[in-house]
Amino acid sequence: MPRLRALRICRRRKADETTPQTGTESREQRHKLRAHQNGPQITQTMQRPQLRGLGRSKTSVEEERRESGVGSSKLYPADVYISQQSVTLFVCEKRKTLVVEVHLNTPSLNTVAKEMSDLQAETYDHAGKAVQHGRARVNGIRLHYITAGTGPALLLLHGTPKDSFYWYKIFPLLTEHFTIVAPDLRGFGYTDKPPSTDGYDSVTNADDVVELMTQLGHDKFYLHGEDRGADYAYATAAKYRDRVLKLSFCEMLVSGFGLEESSFWTKENVTAQYEKRGVWCWHLGFFFLPHVPEMLITGREREFWEMFIKQECYNPTSIEPVALNHWVEVVKSPGCLRGILETYRAGLKNGELSTETCWRREASSHYLS
Questions:
Q1: Predicted model pTM
Q2: N or C: which end of the chain has fewer CB within 10 A?
């Protein structure tokens, strides 16, 4: 454990220089005192309260710290006590303190990393309260969604291979101002994965989410789509323009308006990302193929989707283990990989629907003028 051992040595040396020795404390007490005074912070790695370990109240933690000679009852966002046998983390979150102890009985940091990443994929609002989950029966399927907040409704549509948990960092920033609704799209997450004959095209998905908003009592709403969800957001705004107040989307070319051309194997496309002219969407043709992607990805879900997600990030480390683990596990569930791929196999139909909708809008505008 070179990194952990180096951290322990570094903290110990620094403590020896700054911590007075009274001769009455035990070795463990002195060690805890030194770790507390040095105050190592690891708040970025601890994002959720559902941590494997022993959950305890703030009062019991403060009492133990006073008995151990630490003295101060002030709780930092994350205090770390390192001993020869374990790493103990005192994590303050959602008005309570959790104690997580990781025993160092392996020759590597894999166990520590596993404990820190094996968290429950839950989303919280601005007050630290877990969002509301639901399953709506819409358009012939059961659709899983999360919702929280107050104010005007804002519908968020995720991309591939994600689900509603994609927005877990956004929810706390928005729920104070909007009522956020984030579904798992048809074929994704915990939503049903119907046969391809039931439709995975953009208009079918638009009908799904609009019926959901109707059931939740949102007659009009703001709309944002990301990646694959952008295609569906565009179709929703086009078909239900009287209900969508404003539309925004990102990380996507709309089908029928350049998306198909971005997948061509040409020198211009292959070199686009290196010359900052765009990206080569090589995966569109691959995902469109019947059966082959399922054969190649199954059993290698972690390797494939981690590469797929991180290669498009300026900062790959921003994809936290809790999110990546969740999406990989969901993709492994029955029918999920096929459901995701069916949304791409409907790509050509989506292009036809997008251009048809655009033509109708132009014709309507010309007629009214």
A1: 0.69
A2: C
